[in-house]
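Thread: Modeling a multi-component assembly for a lab meeting

Hi all, long-time lurker, first post. My supervisor asked me to bring a structural picture of a complex we are working on to next week's group meeting, and I have zero experience with this. I have the sequence lines for every component (795 residues in total). Could someone generate the structure of the whole assembly? Inputs are pasted exactly as I received them:
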Amino acid sequence: MTKQSKTEAQSQTEAQPKTESQSTTKTKQGRLSKYIRLGYVLPRVAIVVTIGLAVRFGLDPTLHWALVSGGESAIGAKVELAALETSLWNGQLTIKELALANPQSPMRNLLEAADSQLHLDVNALLRGRVVVTNGAITGLQFDTDRETSGALAEVPPAEESGPSLLDPWLDSAGNMGEQWFEEIADRFDTNLVDQLQSPKLAQELKERWPQQYQQLEAQVKDIRTRGKELEKSIREVKANPLRGLEKLVELQKELVSLQQEVKAVQRQIGNLPHQAETDKQAVLAAREQDEALLREKLNIGTLDGDGLTQTLLGQPVTEGLASALEWVRWARAKVPSNPAKEKDARSRGTTVRFAPPQPSFVVEGVELQGLAQLSGQPLELIGTLTNASNAPKLLPEPTQLTLRGTGATDLTMSLTLDRRNEAAHDHLLLSCPQIAMPARQLGKPEKLVVEMGEGAAKFHIDLQMEGDQLVGEILFEQESLQLTPRLAKSPNGQLAKTLEQSLAGVQRLQASVALTGTLKKPKLKIESDIGSQVAAGLNATVKRVLQEQTDSLLAKSRAQVDEQLAKLTELREQAQTELLGQLGEGQELLTQLASLTGGGNNTGLPAGIPQLGKKMRLGDILKK
Amino acid sequence: MTSLLLRPLRQLAQALTANDSARQIAWGFVLGMMIGLLPKGNLLLVMLTMLLCALRVNKPAGLLAAGIFSLVGLAFDGVAHRIGSLVLLWEPARPVHTWLYELPLGPWMGLNNTVVVGQLILGLYFAVPVYYLMFRFARRIQPKLSKWLLRYRIIRWLRGAELGANLGVDA
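Re: Modeling a multi-component assembly
Sure thing. I ran the full set together rather than chain by chain. Output:
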């Protein structure tokens, strides 16, 4: 056998099994192709593989887009995420650095999540449902800063930014205590001495009476001067009666006129005691009015403890609460309350349900871990979110969010969103046994502010919402209080000092806020012992101080008026005696002149001026 | 374009004059009948259509049957609904229906619709007699009919065009 023939034989021997295997394959293919059109199936299989690959590599960008656009349309602000990875085989969805912008404050994030690992139920996916069986969202942060605005380019028309929910209540509550403080501040800061009438009247008399006496004195002096001149003229005529006969008649007339003036002045002096009595009565009446005025000023209403509580705590409570309620309204509007929209019924036949309808999106349970800020201190949050879905009405259990905060303080929060019944029922429980409270101010800076020092406090919030109805209670308690009052009006005045004394005794603040009404029109009632404590101290102190002030003013005014009247009486007696003496001299001279002119005492004047003073008993009159 | 317009005629000619076996024609017709009877828009129909296309059965006969029974099926909707209701609401079978519904892709199968189930049962019920009739028809009548039809140039041309189309030559 040649080498060539050997090779051929070997190749034939090797080729024989190959041919058999090839024929077997061909037989199988032939058998398969006898029943199946491979020309049809293979291209379709290729298409299916291509679609599978497209889904594998295109699912992530598609889901990324769907999550961003869906989230943005839901919250009305930008939704950003750094990366999204899916593994359908394992049912794993990973979202990195998710950030939801705050629609009400575009430069802040509503929340951020550094890493979200979600496990999806693949079987449920094949049934058209997205079910997150478990997962973990870590690196959660709330209300963080953004570098760029989170507002959408096309911003839907915002709701009218009217007053906050609690503004009307806050206005009325603030007025309760403020009126009292206004009244008290006015009372303390007003100079009541200026309003007293009796000292003013006494001062007026003090100025008027000397003027009047000076005027009368001038008249008396003038009468005396003219009387002496008349005497001189009469004596000259008497020396040569024949020559001065005509002049004598004129002198007699002048004498009569002078006598009438004396009579008039005498009458004025005679009226002085009556006028003094009238003036004195006026002063006494003014004093009575002054006393009435002071009593009225003293009669200040009692400060209502409730009103003061609303004044002090109203603003800080309502500011936080109004904001919280706005968020609750916003969040409730976003939580779906209706069952998932049912697919359109087939036009032919009836669809029979073999399983209860289920939501198309469900989060069965997700662990949460994040960081928050409470009173400026970091708070580590750990919690769970269960039974969240797009159709919570279809779930047997309500949506539940529980969070526990550790770190700066211990905090527990439980939020239940129940949409199983017709009316949505939500329940929020928040409890913090100890929290460091920073220094803060209570009240209104333009009126009264109570500065509250740092301290430890505890609070408990229990809010329930049935439909639109709101019922809730917030309890707050802070020990070791340091309260310092600040009054806008007269910060260093007597009221400020009085207030400081009153607040020195307040060591503890306990407040409860009862919430009722609706989410749109909430009503709240703040009850606290701080108002009653401060009010009790203030009422007593203010009344005592005012009484002391009034008594002191009254005594001072009375003494001042009495002294003035005594001085005036003395002045009057002295002046009257002097005037009557001077007038008496003039009258004697005129009587003598009348006898010289031969007219006798036919002037109608009283018997004698010196006797007039004695008859009138002026001393007795002025002593009245 | 011409190929697209002539395609139905070509397929009709192919169905009547094809060299497929009587068994293939009968299977194709039965599958087409079931496709025609079933309401559209469910995964069951897609699966049956894929079977018709993927299996080596007479596709033109299946398409012809689908077209005919789509119209005929509408007339049977009332009966199908009653049959489907009886089956679906039969309490002992409820676990089976629930299991079917709970299967992956179950909700898209349409097996919880009364008319779908009714038409499916009708289709299955008529499958055997229709197969038998079609088989006999194909074996006895189709060769004669084919021979008779092939005498006409138009049929030959349509058949040739169909073969050409299959080979990638446009008519």
